[in-house]
């Protein structure tokens, strides 16, 4: 038996509860992992609250991330005792996920724990942090360098945003952080933000083109926020777009793209190829200051996850949440 959050269909929506599950009910997969730590991502919060149709089949154990120790493996790449990390691949959406004492998955979905991170730190990073790294890599791929000019991060006090600010600052970029929570200004400055901007400046419909300001941007918001960010990009600047915290719509014009040569680089973590994942984790090991990581994480026990999911969809969680499950 192991403990897990379980989402089941109900007449009016869904039931979510912390429950005990027999090992025999684990889904098919080549590697069984004892989960040491999981985490709460925005997508998990949407799944647990039922705010968006994330869950594809019921009953579902949510949790798009886990870090743990291999208990049994039919995959020659892994042996019992190996420390592994999982991010995405539809886990927690259509395959039972990481907010549980055990998980069973396809060995090809796992990556070995990246040194020098601990299992706990790997979940401090989680999909949000690994996506932040993918966004920074997208900016680099498109030629955005620290000397190119200021870069912007939206949703900065959230998970992706906090890690993106910390990485970009460590790499030497001048980072402006957009937040709807001015009370988090000191937190964002401690992560390395040079300037704090009020989200309200970005949330209303704007002009197709605004004064050129940003050489690069990481956007977690979508909606008018993304449209306004694109409008204020410098000539040949790049926006890495990964989120929809402000909405799925993209109410913009093509003006920034055809008149300023702006690149809109989409970032997906779920189906990201293995080589890029391994590269992102290597880069996190070199470009994310562990002290900054400690400063942006907090623990929430498995029995507190359902309440925390409600807070997260309201944008009230700061930084990253670690969920200790079995521990080290
Ligand atoms: P969090 O909940 O931790 O952070 C989201 C942040 O967005 C909030 O903290 C808030 O920051 C900001 N925000 C909330 N509402 C709005 C709004 N209406 N307008 C503008 N900003 C808003 O989530 P994550 O950081 O984990 O994820 C951020 C987004 O990225 C989500 O949409 C998520 O689904 C997406 N994502 C996508 C991935 C991919 O593979 N493409 C992978 C991981 C995440 P503040 O208070 O500072 O304003």
TrEMBL record:
Coiled coil: none annotated. It holds the Pfam family ADH_zinc_N. Residues 13-323 form the Enoyl reductase (ER) domain. GO terms for molecular function: acryloyl-CoA reductase (NADPH) activity. SMART domains: PKS_ER (SM00829). Gene3D superfamilies: Medium-chain alcohol dehydrogenases, catalytic domain (3.90.180.10), NAD(P)-binding Rossmann-like Domain (3.40.50.720). This is Oxidoreductase. It comes from Candidimonas nitroreducens.
């Amino acid at each position: 038996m192991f403990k897990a959050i379980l989402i089941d269909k109900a007449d009016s929506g869904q039931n979510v509860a912390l429950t005990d599950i027999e090992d025999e009910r684990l889904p098919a997969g080549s590697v069984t992992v004892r989960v040491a730590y999981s985490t709460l991502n925005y997508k998990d919060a949407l799944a647990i609250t039922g705010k968006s149709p994330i869950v594809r089949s019921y009953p579902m154990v949510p949790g798009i991330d886990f870090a743990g120790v291999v208990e049994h493996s039919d995959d020659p790449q892994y042996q019992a005792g190996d420390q592994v990390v999982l991010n995405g691949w539809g886990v927690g959406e259509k395959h039972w996920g990481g907010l549980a004492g055990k998980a069973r998955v396809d060995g090809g979905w796992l990556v070995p724990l990246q040194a020098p991170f601990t299992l706990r730190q790997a979940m401090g990073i989680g999909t949000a942090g690994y996506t932040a790294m993918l966004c920074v890599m997208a900016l680099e791929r498109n030629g955005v360098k620290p000397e190119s000019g200021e870069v912007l991060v939206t949703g900065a006090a959230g998970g992706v945003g906090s890690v993106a600010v910390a990485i970009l600052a460590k790499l030497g970029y001048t980072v402006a952080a957009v937040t709807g929570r001015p009370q988090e200004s000191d937190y964002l400055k401690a992560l390395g933000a040079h300037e704090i901007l009020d989200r309200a400046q970005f949330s209303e419909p704007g002009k197709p083109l605004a004064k050129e300001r940003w050489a690069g941007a990481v956007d977690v918001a979508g909606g008018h926020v993304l449209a306004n960010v694109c409008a204020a990009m410098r000539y040949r600047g790049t926006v890495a777009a990964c989120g929809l915290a402000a909405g799925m719509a993209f109410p913009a014009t093509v003006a920034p793209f055809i008149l300023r040569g702006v690149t809109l680089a989409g970032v997906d973590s779920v189906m990201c190829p293995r080589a890029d994942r391994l590269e992102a984790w290597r880069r996190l090991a070199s470009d994310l200051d562990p002290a900054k990581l400690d400063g942006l994480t907090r623990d929430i026990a498995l029995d507190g996850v359902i309440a925390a999911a409600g807070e997260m969809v309201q944008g009230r969680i700061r930084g990253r949440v670690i969920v200790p499950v079995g521990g080290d």
